[in-house]
Amino acid sequence: MHALLDQPVAYDDGDIDTNPSLSLHLSELVEQRYSRRQTLTGGLSAMTGAAFGGLLLSGCGEDDASLAAADSGEVRVASGARVAARELGFAAVPKGLGDTVVVPAGHSVTVLYRLGDPIAPGVGPYANNGTDGDFSKRAGDHHDGMSYFGMSATTGAPDALGNTQGLLVMNHENITQKYLHPNGATSGTRPEGEALKEIECHGVSVVQVSKSGAAWSYQPLSPLNRRVTPNTPTQFNGPVRGDAWLRTAYSPDGTRGRGTINNCANGTMPWNTYLACEENWAGYFRRDAGDVATRAAAGAAGARQNQALIRYGAGTTRAGNYGWATVQAADPANTLFRRWNITSNAALPADGTGDFRNESFQYGWVVEIDPFDANSVPRKRTALGRMNHEGCVNGRMVAGVRPAFYMGDDAQNEYIYKFVSDVRWSAADAANRNRLAIGDKYLDRGTLYVARFDADGTGQWLPLVYGQGPLTPANGTYSFQSQADVLINTRLAADALGATPMDRPEWTAVNPANGEMYCTLTNNGSRTGARTDAANPRAYSDPQRGGGASNGNANGHIVRLREQGDTTEATAFTWDIYAFGAGADLDPANINVSGLDDTNDFSSPDGLWFSLPTNAGGQDSPIMWIQTDDGAYTDVTNCMLLAAVPGRVGDGSVRNVTASYNGNRTVASPVGAAPGTSLKRFLVGPVDCEITGITSTPDGKALFVNVQHPGDGGTVSNPSGNWPQSQNGVASGRPRSATIVVTRDDGGVVGL
Q1: Domain residues for 400?
Q2: How confident is the model at residue 58 (pLDDT cuts 50, 70, 90)?
Q3: Rounded Cα gap, residues 193 and 180, in angstroms
Q4: DSSP result, 440-502
Q5: What are phi and psi of 669, to 5 degrees?
Q6: What is the DSSP code (8-state) at residue 184?
Q7: Could you give the number of structural domains in the chain?
Q8: Within a domain: 750
Q9: Which residues contact 565 (CB under 8 A, 6 or more apart)?
Q10: pTM
Q11: DSSP classification of residue 93
Q12: Bond into 230 cis (ω within 30)
């Protein structure tokens, strides 16, 4: 008899520090080009000007006057006249601990697409009592990164201005396991039906949505509706395709795989495809005692695999999230559950073709999906590296220029990356109907870089290219064998190059007006005073109202960079910190450095997105949307969505920030101008949720937002919240992750 658990079977989200690199931090990485006194007295503008001179003022056809206007908070319109910086057109929502989504006056919320909603013929309504199945034909759980693709109402083809009909594509990052079963999950050996349900609740949804009058709904019978789950066939593209480390019993030639899992942030490609990015995948795999020795006995390749598994968080004996590897499938030929055990069998071929010792190397990639072709096979783009991918966001696409794609590796003390394609952008490719072939063109060949943030406010993109610098077989820490090896072990390669460890790099976003890239650094519990640097200057104790404290960089911050020459092809950049998360009542000198108040204080920035240039919210001074996934400030408020009108890199000054947690240290950090009223709280979510995933219609009049794992702090019999039922005043029923639509009651652009 199996005991029934009210709490989930053990889950590890991978938020641990696995970076043992001896890479020195900023103050020791480079010989200082300017003295600290010069930096402090000259200010950031002088500093960056000295570093790059006129190059920063000559990109993309902008003249010095227009750039100066942008830096001062003004924008220049086509006529050359100056206009004031954009004002956010709503009153800030107060912090709150309720169980509904709260938005500003004059706005409305509609619940659109919930866990379990059917998306195929013959699938019944969701009972929401743990008895439902068929999740390959229902909405998955933990809605996350999301994109809207406008669609022609007559032809069904992509339409960049399709405001009333489109495809909503979203990640289903994880599950709230206890609510998927009648009485919680079975412990010990997992039943096949329970495990299959949990697996299928992960992945991606493609669902058609439409507007009738003022009301939005999803279309449950659309032939374009689709679930991509961890069981969906995929193929590998790029330099790692066919590599020995991808070979399994399912794919002996290392070219095919099954599915995608723990997808967090995303990307929307100009050629109308969707990028799902695999984040905390390592924790799903079981590894038994003895596997280290078995791999080591297989020779040098096995020893290198042991190093790689340690660096990616699977280096020790582990049971695997949710115990899927324990399932005894009724069909002995069914490998859907055995694949979650990466323990090597010494009696089987050492190349991995007889078992699933290499299965974990098939995860950690960016996955491209064509939402307009329900029969297409998703492609894993290996040229973009293997890591805890958050999102993958393209920079400005300029004809004749090689495009860049920006990514964060979400774990403590990991890195920020960009991939620069070998192919120069052709605008005609945006309309090509062979969309995955266009992905082949731009995403399978290019150079992957990792960022080094130098203490003087400049930075370098370091190329991860086999045979260059330390990325050779002779490297003393890890012996790199090929470019495929560099990409499979991106973290080890970045360690070797001396990249800057950051406070959990999460979502990236690019300002469509000026090309500057922003990255949320959500928090870092392992950051100490002794290990602060200019890009990660805070380590402190954040007190909790109920007692105790969160330590390290508990509230996170947002870093931004400007490419040298304002081109995606640059290998150097300037940077500063746009804003520090903090409670309004915390130390303004060393914690609440950005001067936040009750209208805009926040913690743990996570989701990040700019309004689209197809509407006024994304033009001139575009609105940047910030979502939070917080544990340090939830004694004060539920997670939230904020709107901002950011300035530019260099609009602030250098600040001295003193860390006090586990070692005192003062560093000089380039900090942007205090956001003030250009940053406001727009939305507060329900109990226990994360606000994540955001997109809009091209006209900006419908804002789609995801609400993840509401009410997950309770039990099956007594949930801590009942959202989305509570949105309509019903305080009963199991909580469900869901997508909402926010609209203005007057029909205007949301945020203005």
Answers
A1: 4-169+176-332+336-341+355-744
A2: very low
A3: 11
A4: HHHHSSEEEEEEEE-TTSEEEEEE--TTSTT-STT-SSS---SHHHHHHTHHHHHHHHTPPPE
A5: -125, 130
A6: B
A7: 1
A8: no
A9: 55, 56, 58, 59
A10: 0.91
A11: P
A12: no
